[in-house]
Design a protein that fits this description.
Elements lengths: L3 H10 L7 H13 L4 E5 L5 H8 L5 E6 L2 H13 L6 E5 L11 E6 L6 H8 L3 E9 L17 H19 L3 E6 L5 E6 L4
Parallel strand pairs: 1-2, 1-4, 2-3, 4-5
Antiparallel strand pairs: 5-7, 6-7
The chain binds S-adenosylmethionine (SAM).
């Protein structure tokens, strides 16, 4: 039987970025309060968040996409250890080239930060009308609000992209987004109600 603490230890030892505890608690609370049953995740890493989300309730189904082969294999192994093969569907591939059918109550975007707008635009068609797209890492370890403290060119470009994404959400007329200063910065975006 799998053990959540062992996943956390593995992630730490192997420097695999996984959702912070505070962010995860927020996600689980959201899932329970909103009666979420179908979840699509972009970016599985070792399956930590997908396994935790599936464990929130016995009737939850998760589909998660991972493009890194090693990470994908690790997720497959961990999902098996938790006996969740019937409820966590792991897809190997680049989420930007993958076609997913069906509608989800929740889409959790937690993959390459530079591509967040593309993921959002591509996968909004898979969102139920009353569902939510949740994005993690919007503070990027506190750096997004303090770009002057960054010296590396690549990092600066990445932070610019994260801030562009935030801007995209703020100005988006189709969706209403609430930003939470929790974990590494979380956004919850829902379709604006058309009256
Ligand atoms: C932050 S980690 C995911 C952490 C995981 N959601 C968790 O909290 O346990 C991001 C993962 O997204 C994957 N990734 C990045 N770009 C991707 C893409 N275009 N399609 C699928 N996976 C991607 C990376 O290989 C990495 O494993």
């Amino acid at each position: 039987m799998g053990c959540i603490t062992n996943l956390e230890i593995y992630a730490k030892e192997n420097k695999v970025p996984i959702i912070q505890k505070e962010g995860l608690n927020f996600l689980i609370k959201y899932i329970k309060e909103n009666n979420v049953k179908n979840i699509l995740e972009i970016g599985s890493a070792i399956g930590y968040s997908s396994i935790n989300m599936a464990l929130a309730s016995d009737d939850i189904q998760v589909t998660t996409i991972e493009k890194n082969e090693k990470m994908y294999n690790e997720t497959i192994k961990n999902v098996k250890d938790f006996n969740l093969e019937n409820r966590v569907n792991v897809i190997y591939g680049d989420a930007l080239d993958t076609t997913i059918q069906g509608k989800y109550d929740l889409i959790f975007i937690d993959a390459a930060k530079a591509q967040y707008i593309k993921f959002f635009e591509k996968y909004k068609q898979n969102l139920q009308t009353n569902g939510a797209i949740i994005t993690d890492n919007l503070n990027f370890h506190g750096l997004a609000n303090h770009p002057e403290e960054i010296h590396s060119k690549n990092l600066k470009a990445l932070v610019r992209k994260i801030n562009n994404y935030k801007d995209f959400l703020i100005k988006n007329k189709e969706f209403h987004t609430i930003f939470y200063e929790l974990g590494d910065g979380i956004a919850v975006s829902k379709y604006n109600k058309m009256d």
